[in-house]
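Entry 14: structure prediction run for UPF0033 domain-containing protein. Input pasted below.
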Amino acid sequence: MSTEQSPDQILDLRGVKCPFNFVKTKLKLETMESGQTLQVVLDPGEPVANVPRSARDEGHQILSVSERADGLYNVLLRKSGA
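Run finished. Output tokens:
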């Protein structure tokens, strides 16, 4: 049994190129309440390198970055209170 909390929202961005994947992540976070969590599904390479960094630069918390069995990545973010 997993002890991880389920994210409040999930955003699947596989196949979305930079910088559009961060733009979509930012727009989704803007619709959420402070403290809520967002799981973003990203491709390897630039997307998984850039989206967490950009989200952190915006003041959001990176809770985890994990590689999935299918080679994609799950990035769990917590929306900042700003």
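Notes: The chain has a mean pLDDT of 94. Will compare against the previous run tomorrow.
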